[in-house]
Amino acid sequence: MVISMDTPRKLIVGYDLCEDYSQISCYSYKSSEPVPISTREEDEQSLIPTALCVKGDTKQWLFGEEAINCGANNAGVLVDHLLEKLLQGTETTVYGQDFSAVSLMEKYFRKTLLLIKNYFPTEQITKMVVTVRNTHPALVEGIYAALAQLGLDKDRVVVMSHAGAFLYYALNQDKSLWMNDIGLFDFSREGFLYYQIRLNRRTKPMIAGLNREDFSSTLNYRMILNQPEKIAFTFENIAETVLFKKLVTTLYFTGRGFDGDWAQEAIQSLCTGRRAFMGQNLYTKGACYAAKELSGDRKLDEIILLDDDMITSVIGVRVYKDTKFQEVTLAEAGEIWYEVNKSIEVIPDGEVELELVLRNIMTKEIVREKIHLTKLPQRPERMTRLEIKLTCKDKNTGKITVSDLGFGEIYAETGPIMEFSIEIG
Question: For the chain, what is the domain count?
Fold first, then answer.
């Protein structure tokens, strides 16, 4: 049955992919906020176990709660830890057949994304952001590969960290909630994290930076079962330490570690003079807001968002165009480093020198780096086309690749001829 919702101008999806549970939300242009996608229309439960199961009798693939129940009843082969399998690149054998980690993730995405059809039966996904706790390159590449098998390529999908999703979530709330700094305590089966958003309103555009601290060695999910008497005390100590003399006036709490009564008194004492919100759907909603923003429906144009995966410099290259020197931008500050992938074509004239300009928005430092291009093919003047391509090795290191594109039918391309790294942090 189709659930009655507004007809969207775009189908915007936020997908929180975790090892234990995943969540999906879609942006409602009617209510101007993300709405959860549930497995059953009569049930508002939006937590979907990140698991598959192959039934023994029919060899049918199940997902979510059905998969968990099937495995628990020994009625099939349960396949879980899908993110771990992607990280390790391991194969899984089910009833004599081998499945790659990417193919398993593709099956899980296919099953769960079909839930959206109950809400939006005819629309195609315009933009989707998948958010994960940690953006390890192998995990990110595996997610992109799985979604590409569904026809969802990088022009429609972005993978970002929970930190990035939190930035988008917090800054899409009422402005009264981010007049000062914003904190988030995340207590999941994977550990205990604290995120803090710091706003610099003196810059134009304003900069929203984010710090992350990992306290998993001090407070973790095992303590709920093994040392319940220490949980509240340990949490209070951590919270009081990170908030000491900090102008944090809004706090968020998320993660199943906060289930139950143990945290209520501790959280209440933290919230004197602060506003507090607790829930399990912060990341999926943040991913949905991010997808809306990245689709072109911009609300945060006047803010640069910077988390641990986002570069802090504007990177440009000086070229001679239209009778004057101009600076062409290859990457903007605030781009996710593994999403940076831009190139320009140039025709060298005379001695070839590449001038890069890096403008750090945090330090205001401007660095100009000149690189003499060697190993160019020996051809007459202005008979060579070069591609200058920028990608990133990590948040602080860019990679410039110079390739020969040839010149029409006269000279064939010879491919990459130079590659070098630049510091961008």
Answer: 3
